[in-house]
Each structure stands twice: as C-alpha cells, then as structure tokens.
Amino acid sequence: MKINRISVYHKALPLKDPYWLSGGRLKFEVLDATFIKLETDSGLVGWGEGTPWGHTYVPAHGPGIRAGLETLSTAIIGQDPRKLDLVERAMDSCLPGHLYVKQPVDMACWDILGQSCDLSISDLLGGKRDTGTPAASSVSSGEPDYMMGIINAYRDRGYVAHSAKVGGSDTAKDIERIRHIESNKRDGEIILYDVNRAWTRREASIVMNSVADLGVTFEQPGETLDDIAQIRNVTTSPISVDESLVTLQDATRVAREGLADVFGIKLNRVGGLTKARRMRDVALAHGIQMFIMATGGSVMADTEAAHLAQSIPDAFIKACWSCQDMLTVDIAPGSGPRCIDGFITVDDTPGLGVVPDEALLGDPVAVYQ
C-alpha cells in the first residue's frame, strides 16, 4: 500500500465567544485549521487535522502547516502509511522540527492503519478502556464571577473537568480567581489552573504559596523547564507541564528530575500520536498522570486526543479537552464521538472514526500526487 495523493483543505473555525489567555494578554476569536486527505493505491483514505491555537500562543502557525506540507509532500508520496515509524523518519529527515506540520499527516496514517487492521486507533495504541474520559472545558480568563459563569454553563452540560485560565502580572487578582473558584468547586470536580507561561518566577511563587492550602494543580506556571525547576524548589503545589512538553527529551527530563506531577500532552504540539504514545509510556513508567488535548480544532482533533486518552488506565488519565463545543461550525455532522454527559468516548469504528463532509471543507487549496 502506498500514498498516492494528498489533498489539503483550509477552513476557518470561529469560536462562539472571544477567548482570553494569560489574564487577558492573548485574545483568540477564529482558529486557522488545515485538513488533509491521504489517498492510497489500495483505495483506503485517511483524514487528518492540524489546528494551532492561533498564531501567538506557541511556535505553531496555521498557514505554516500548509507551507510545510508542500515541502513534505515529496517525502510522503510513495510511503506505506501503515509503517508509522518509517513515515515519521521520512518527515523528520525532509523537514527537521516543525512538529505541528507533521501531526495531521501522522493522524491520517493512523486512520488508514486502523481501517486496514479493522481496529480503532485506541486499540492500536494498546487497547482502550471501556469507559470514556472526562471532557475538560476551557475557561477563558476574566473576573472571578465571569469565570464561574463559564464553569456553570459547562456543568449544565455534564462537565466535571475544567481548565481555568489564570496568569498575568496582577497576582492579587489571580489569588482571588483561584479562591473564588475553589470555594464554589463541587465534589468530584477536576479543576486545573492553567497559567500558560504567563508568570515570572516571582509571580508564580507569590500566587502558588498564597493558595498552597487548597492543594490545587497549576499548569505551566513558568516559561521554560528551567523556570519550572526553580518554581518547584520554592513551592509545594502540584505542577503540570504542557507548553514545555514538546519532545521525548522534555518528557524524560521532567520524569527524571521530578519537575512535574502531570503531563499535558497536546498532540499538534508534539507531532502526533506516534510521538505522543512514547510520552504516554514515559509517564506511565514514572507514575505521572496525564491530560490529553488537541491544541484546538474540530471533532476530528478531539477524536484523535480521545483515542490516546482512552488508551490510558483510569488511575493515570485526568481528562481530555473537547474543543468542538467552543466552535460555531461542525465539519463532520453526525460523525465521531461527542461530549455526552461530560464524557467523550471512542467506539470500535476502525481507524479515527470521523469522516468530514468535504462539501463543508470547500475545494482543496493544494493537491500533491
């Protein structure tokens, strides 16, 4: 089996509401999504999606995916998509770095492999749990009552996991936000306080030590792993890393040096499932829990994350972000898992289990063959 055609689609995915990160430092309203269709000489077709969270969040650029795919196309055409490691090596040799460009290709290859084996991706990853994964909301930064309003709206839909965005130079406001949300937390809820690298080391120590009595978990309270290491030395709150978790080397350093208690694995950032499954195994070997997430995107991106999440034992999986509920458009009506009563669950459909409506994607912006 060989890949003989790559079609690339560009789609804007508007958010239902403006979204603020890092205490209002960054604002997002529309996501720039790239969808790819891999066709093979056997007739099997695989789909992938790459959707960075805007252009200013991390080094990942929507138009950069489409530019990178032009470069990668010569390395991808003629590959057997079922031989995931060979495809990975071909892409890494052709275009070093740029992991966010390679993730949608990797997703489409896993889709084809699953179809060819008559297995879901989660079963290919080692076998899925029968139960689904708590779907995590993403709570835009703002005044405490505003943030609680978002959480309450998600609660009405059954959500039990929430990623509340904090961070910024106003440490008193962040302390107020955290204490207000925690005072209204329900039994059994999972709340992660996501700083998105916005704090300096000083600000992190002020906030985290001020709320240490609450036992809450902070995600990415500093810019780099070196910052995380220093913050770890002067605070006692549990720490999750995501923006600094990019490569397998990052994962092994975090595990070896005890820098964090939780991995936030974002598939577009790390280059796709082939690389992410290695991070999963490092986490499992070191007793590190995980949040699994897309960086953003449609039901396709959510489904890829849900497959990895459902391959993780209950004791180690915290939640899986569901971005599809934040969008005004649905590119795959009636296809793929949806968040039901606060959980997202993949079934036994071979491959990814989502097929977009090509009419909703429009005409390809590029075709390589």
How would you describe this structure to a colleague?
The protein is an alpha/beta fold and 369 residues long. It folds into two domains: 3-118 and 359-368, Enolase-like, N-terminal domain (Enolase-like, domain 1), CATH 3.30.390; 123-344, Alpha-Beta Barrel (TIM Barrel), CATH 3.20.20. Helix content is 37%, strand content 22%. It has 13 helices and 13 strands. An eight-stranded parallel β-barrel has the order 4-5-6-7-8-9-10-11, surrounded by four helices. A four-stranded antiparallel sheet has the order 3-2-1-13. The radius of gyration is 20 Å and the shape is globular. The mean pLDDT is 95.
Distance between the termini: 15 Å
The SSE order reads: EEEHHHHEHEHEHEHEHEHHEHEEHE
Q: Could you give the count of β-strands?
A: 13
Q: Give the biggest beta sheet.
A: 8 strands, parallel, barrel
Amount of beta strand: 15-25%
Number of helices: 13
* CATH architecture designation of the largest domain: Alpha-Beta Barrel
Overall number of structural domains: 2
What gyration radius follows from the Cα positions, in whole Å?
20 Å
CATH top level assignment of the largest domain: Alpha Beta
| Averaged pLDDT | 95
Overall SS class? alpha/beta
Question: Order of strands side by side in the largest beta sheet?
Answer: 4-5-6-7-8-9-10-11
How would you name the CATH homologous superfamily of the largest domain? Answer: Enolase-like C-terminal domain
Question: What is the share of helical residues?
Answer: 25-40%
Summarize the structure.
By secondary structure, the chain is an alpha/beta fold. Helix content is 37%, strand content 22%. It contains 13 helices and 13 strands.
